[in-house]
Amino acid sequence: MALIVKVLDEFGTFELVFWRSFFMTIGTTTMLILLKKSLLGPPGRRGILIWRGIAGFGFMSAFYYAIKMMKLSDAIVITYTSPVITGVGAALLLGEKWGLLDAVGSTLCLVGVVLISKPSFVMTLFGITATPPPLNGTIGALVSALLASSVYLLLRKAKDLDPIVSVNYFAVIGMILSPVGMAFNSETMHWPEGFAWVQLSLLAGLSVFGQALMNIGLARESAGKATAMNYVQVVFAYVYQIYIFHHECDTLSVIGAVLIASWGAIALAKEAMLKSSATDFSAFPENSLPGVEDGLVRLITPGGGTRLVTPGGSPALKEAAGPLLKANA
Q1: Coil, helix or strand for 162?
Q2: Torsion angle of C-alpha atoms 126, 130, 131, 132, degrees rounded to 10
Q3: Can you tell me the distance from the alpha carbon of 23 to that of 192, in angstroms, rounded to the nearest whole number?
Q4: Angle between helices 46-69 and 135-157 (to 10 degrees)
Q5: Gyration radius from the chain CA atoms
Q6: What pLDDT, on the 0 to 100 scale, is given for residue 35?
Q7: Closest Cα partner for 253 from 128, 114, 134?
Q8: Global model pTM greater than 0.90
Q9: Going edge to edge, which strands form the sheet with 296-300?
Q10: What is the pLDDT of residues 143-172, one digit of tens each?
Q11: In this model, does residue 302 exceed pLDDT 50?
Q12: Pairwise CA distance, residues 162 & 46, whole Å
């Protein structure tokens, strides 16, 4: 997708957003009609869906702008600080846990952004002479990361939303707001010709297909593995930059990319730690579930002690604790 945006340099940022949103709207609306699902979504969730669409439009616009203004790899890598920003935001706004590994990952990502953006005052402190990327492109990439994180937080807050309905809101709102952005940015509308129609169709089609595969991946694999695999895009970005656009990669940017992409390894490490600390409830006797306190099961261990655990961590425990939870509801 990012490669197509970079290739379509005759189209303006908001013009590309419009065409992608237009084709996406056709695809997602057709899917919802065929599946006989509501185009508007559940009544109590439409406000969140609208905000998700607005934030998604902002992310897409800022991301496309950064791609046009910067080297492809730099734009993608800075945008991929969004998982770290999401982690911080989830801890502050949703009360999710934020531990030592998250702090280490955030620090590495921050250093990585500095190495890629190369702010003059920082480079001067270390006596390094380096040409920074365009400032407006760097700002665009950072804004896209912030807005992508806001989308993730909204979706995490409303986990019951149908993904197709969510993407449809994103597409429709993008199609509505992009002409406003074109007017504000003094862009003129180009009628696509020839192969440009294919490229624009691919831009939208790959976006929908990618989101569908992401949902499948998150459903079948853990979030840690899904996050780690997502950083493979950084490798592809450098391949495209070197072999298609023939842009050289400086050492500082490569080091910065590695630091930011290390979040994928940290996500896997967090997952491994959670698994190692999990309790194997299959070893406990069937009569070891005498009561429930505030939604937590008081478990009698084989050694005679007790501990409070959440039943969601084990299918077997959840099934056994079901009657107790209902009785104490």
Answers
A1: coil
A2: -40
A3: 13
A4: 160
A5: 23
A6: 92
A7: 114
A8: no
A9: 291-293, 296-300, 306-309
A10: 999 998 888 888 777 777 888 898 899 999
A11: no
A12: 12
